[in-house]
Amino acid sequence: MAEQKRADYASTRPQATGAWVAGVEEGSPAWEAGIEPGMRIVSVNGVEPRDIIDWRWEADDACCELEVFDPRDDTTTPCELWREPGQDWGVDFTDVLFDGIRTCVNACQFCFMAMLPPEARATLTLRDDDYRLSFLQGNFVTLTNVTDDEAERIITCGLSPMNVSIHAITPEVRRSLIGRHAQRGIDVLERILSAGIEVHAQIVLCPGINDGEELRATLDWVEARPGITSLAIVPLGYTKHSRRFHSSYSDDLEASRNVVCLLEPYQARARKTLGITRFQLSDEFYVDAQLPVPAAETYDGYPQFYDGIGMLRSFLDETALVARERAPELAQIDARLAEKSLQALLVCGEAARETIDAFCKTASPAGRVRTFAIRNDYFGGDVNVTGLIVSEDLLAQLPEGLAGTLVVLPEVMFNFDKLTLDGDTQARILDELGHRGAACAVSVPNPGDYLDALLAALDGKRP
């Protein structure tokens, strides 16, 4: 069950290039200098900033000299900023990248973008592979488009940790999986590891391609490189629009168990020699293999949580924690729902149903809080996670008559603009469910937030 904090796609608004100012804190050095939202920082100490990294690097002292462009009169004005020790400059930008996003040069067999519905909007098909977003936001990158100068920048600026997709180590397998630039990624990875950059790595495991002996070879390669402090292994996911893949580990219990067994000696050696598990399987493998998920201590503090590593264990443990620490609030739920003649439906993907059921049983022994799992017909294939629920499926599968129902939608199905993957707005969905008679709330899908959402809705607060 690879649940996410938020849907893994960004704003749909077009981004203008340049260091455009989005906000200025009142009383800050930037505010005192007269910088306002809508202006653009042209240079910092004579350097044109490419991204937020340049801004932080160049503006690291007590003073910095800027050139600021004001589009209202097309003027560029020099100014000097001063700050006290520990004080922030007080300026926020519209984006962390000022010179545009680096796009992918690969042709990965398993690329999810190639499996999108033909009607998907263009912004969803943007294939980013930007090393800066690896450091700033935890995106996984292949490093295949990184130049020598950019590799040196990673080292000089200490952009650590980096999140890097490896997938396979044998040259011919990598080339088959990734494309003709595959070796470049390994060359850059070796260079930054040698310079002391910490790396969290990832393998997307494809049945019959990079599993079995190839997986073993890749694990051996990683094991010999201590700078790779964690390795996530996640299964191939495919949609009904895939031309290449029509099955994965979700369809093969034995294959899933084989992967679990193959990893165990590597995990045991890492725990013995390093005190960490290091080699981590995504939750889906344990679900697909019908095996219990490991204990929390084996997840090394969850460094790859948002890659679907340990989310299931974390949810179960947090459910137990909420039951212990918020027992009086939990005890109110059934009675208050009954008082208002309400039932609550926690909307989720099919992969999350059994796990969220554990919270529902804890919150409502009387069964007034239940999961409502949405089947993903929009993507099809083996797509079943909560973050990829779309409006089309949600509205088609929820009942037309929802009087007496509190519907709790997962925040992760919306992007930062509160849009679903099929382009609907959160406001319109809430309005439609309201017309069906439902009370609605939106919640991060974890036990504490679910409880907060239920209590807030029962108090009559808006989502």
From TrEMBL:
Domain Putative radical SAM N-terminal: 84-229
A Pfam family the protein falls into: Radical_SAM_2
Domain DUF512: 234-434
Residue span(s) of domain PDZ: 20-55
SUPFAM superfamilies according to UniProt: PDZ domain-like, Radical SAM enzymes
UniProt-recorded name of the protein: DUF512 domain-containing protein
Organism per entry: Thermophilibacter provencensis
